[in-house]
Amino acid sequence: MSIRKASPQRLADIVRERGPGESAARAVLARLRAEVRRRDRSLGLTEGFGRIYQMMRAAPTLTARLEELGQQMTDALAAVLAEETGAAPDDPLPRVAAAQIGAVHSLVFAEIGRRITAGESPDEIADALEVLLDAAEDLLGGRLLAYAPAGGGGV
After folding, report:
1. Angle (nearest 5°) at CA 70 between 144 and 40
2. How far is CA 121 from CA 35, 65, 107, 111, 132, in A?
3. In the chain, count of helices (H) and strands (E)?
4. What is the C-alpha separation between 127 and 54, in angstroms, rounded?
5. Could you tell me the pTM of the whole model?
6. Cα→Cα distances 104→52, 70, 87, Å
7. Structure letter (DSSP) for residue 46
């Protein structure tokens, strides 16, 4: 994700914008798939992004900022999930769900970085990301994939 586009509210916004009945995890997966398919610049799926990525990773302050943003995204998502599901303050489920969704989101960006560094083209990376997202969805499990449907509370 480019620093310019990075927002601590990214995952929370995706979940808030989901359609009726769509779960939080499915909304994030659908958005990632759509961004991959259109080779969205915010993912770095453009020619020449490899040089920018290497520069970002070489700067410890930028790396730290990206990691901090990832944690802020997960925290913001957990807050939205807790609010939407009416979870009690000590209920760990919204935090656990947000951590799992956030982990998939982070994995996508780590995979992009790994493949960019290896010199793969945006099209090759996008093809690999489709497979990665399918595998992630298969492993997430039914409960998380059904958790917090829009307008429907928790599961």
Report:
1. 85
2. 16, 26, 18, 13, 16
3. 7, 0
4. 22
5. 0.88
6. 23, 11, 23
7. S
Q: How is residue 3 written in tokens?
A: 């620093």
**pLDDT tens column, 39-88:** 998 888 888 777 777 777 788 898 888 889 989 999 999 999 999 999 99
Q: How far apart are CA 152 and CA 117, in angstroms?
A: 42
Please answer whether residues 127 and 99 qualify as being in contact, where contact means their C-beta atoms are separated by less than 8 angstroms. Answer: no
CA distance 55 to 59: 7
Longest dimension (CA), the chain: 47
CA torsion angle 116 136 69 22 (round to 10): 130
CA distance 13 to 20: 15
pLDDT for res 3? 41
- CA–CA separation, 52 vs 1, rounded Å? 11
Contacts of 70 (CB under 8 A, 6+ apart): 102, 105, 106
